[in-house]
Each structure stands twice: as C-alpha cells, then as structure tokens.
C-alpha cells in the first residue's frame, strides 16, 4: 500500500480537500443555530438579521480555514522513510516537494434567504475553484527483494463545488427551534487533471487523468441522489447537535 508514497499523498490531500468542503457546507447550514450557541439573541421575525448572522458565520468559517493554514496550503518539502529490521523484506524512502493548494476558503454566497412566514431558509453556496499542485515527488521501495519506483507531479483543479437547498424550521415559544426538513443538492462542475504518474518506468498519466477528470465526476453525477441523501443526514445531525 505504500509502494508509491507520493501517489498516496496526492490522493490523501485531495480527499482532505473534498471532505473539508463537505464539512464546510454542513457548517454553513448549521449556522442558522449558531447564534443561540454563542449566546446572542436573534429575532427570527427579522429576515435581514437572520441572513446577516448566517453570512457572518460564513465569513468566520472562511477566516478559520485560512487561520488553520489550509488556504493557501504550502509544503516546501516532506521526506519519509521506513525499514523493517530485515530491510529486504520491506523498506521505502520517499519525498514530496512544492505542494500547494488554494481556493478552499473562497466561499461564495450566491443566495441566502430566510422567509419569516414560511420559516424556510434557502441557500445557494459554492466554492468556485480549488487548485492543488505537486512540484515533484518520488518513492523507492523494496518488498521481498523486489525494487519498486514511482514518481508523481502535476496539478488537479476542482471546479465549482456547489450546494443549493433549503431548511424548514419550526419556532415555538416553549419548544424553541426544531428542524422540519432538510433538502440538499450537491454538484461538481468538473475536475481538471494534469498529473504525471510513472511507476516502474511505465507512464500511467493518461489513466490517472482519466480517473480524476472523468471517472470521479461521472460517479458523483450517477450517485447524486445518494450523495444528497447522505448530506441531508449529516446536516440534520449537525443542526440537531447545535439546537
């Protein structure tokens, strides 16, 4: 599993970026309940105050991503190595350098509305573009005296991660806020992949670019119903945990 350490790092960071995007959007929707959590009273009969608090929470989330060093994310170089006490059974050495990721904190609010009469929050939010690049990386490993080498470099661009939907709430004097329903529609415009992958002297660049640029987007589209359902479950749990 660690034969091509640089490939593992590429997929791992891309996975982190994608998961951070899911979590970010869940937090955005949960922000309707963020005001009570921070002890600030909100007049839910005033649409502007409600939407203003949500937009403020989005700005805070964006800043938190920057403060955490995730945008931009830059790693000049990282080295890794390991060997069993009998190294001919297993050992490896690898490095990655010039890792750069940008765009994760650029959360764009296309629309957020809260209807007082319907107690319904509608939203259209997106991250326009997340770019990920690896300047150079390589790995060498030995498994039972068999030598394996690989290298990875290139760029991956995730184009327009977008979430639209609505949250219906009930507000009672005694019962407080409760969630009636959550509807989510997640979409991804596409992935632009320009990755060079070589293992054992064989060039797999075409295959990896096909997988990233076509297979993943097509799979997300074909399973959009299931993905939306999963997001609705996650968002509902986040909301209930904060009410």
UniProtKB/TrEMBL annotation:
<dbReference type="Pfam" id="PF06585">
    <property type="entry name" value="JHBP"/>
</dbReference>
<protein>
    <submittedName>
        <fullName>Uncharacterized protein LOC113492930 isoform X2</fullName>
    </submittedName>
</protein>
<dbReference type="InterPro" id="IPR010562">
    <property type="entry name" value="Haemolymph_juvenile_hormone-bd"/>
</dbReference>
<dbReference type="InterPro" id="IPR038606">
    <property type="entry name" value="To_sf"/>
</dbReference>
């Amino acid at each position: 599993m660690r034969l091509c350490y640089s490939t593992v790092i590429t997929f791992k960071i891309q996975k982190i970026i994608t998961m951070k995007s899911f979590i970010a959007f869940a937090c955005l929707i949960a922000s309707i309940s963020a005001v009570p959590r921070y002890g600030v009273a909100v007049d839910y009969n005033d649409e502007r105050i409600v939407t203003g608090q949500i937009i403020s929470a989005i700005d805070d989330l964006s800043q938190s991503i920057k403060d955490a060093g995730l945008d931009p994310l830059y790693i000049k170089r990282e080295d890794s190595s390991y060997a069993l006490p009998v190294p001919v059974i297993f050992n490896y050495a690898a490095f990655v350098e010039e890792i750069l990721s940008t765009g994760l904190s650029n959360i764009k609010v296309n629309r957020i509305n809260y209807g007082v009469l319907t107690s319904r929050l509608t939203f259209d939010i997106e991250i326009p573009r997340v770019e990920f690049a690896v300047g150079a990386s390589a790995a060498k490993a030995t498994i039972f005296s068999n030598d394996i080498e690989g290298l990875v470099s290139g760029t991956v661009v995730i184009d327009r991660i977008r979430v639209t939907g609505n949250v219906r709430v009930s507000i009672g004097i005694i019962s407080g806020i409760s969630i009636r329903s959550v509807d989510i529609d997640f979409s991804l415009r596409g992935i632009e992949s320009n990755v060079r992958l070589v293992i054992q002297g064989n060039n797999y660049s075409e295959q990896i670019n096909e997988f990233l640029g076509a297979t993943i987007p097509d799979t997300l589209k074909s399973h959009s119903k299931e993905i939306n359902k999963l997001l609705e479950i996650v968002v509902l749990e986040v909301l209930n945990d904060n009410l």
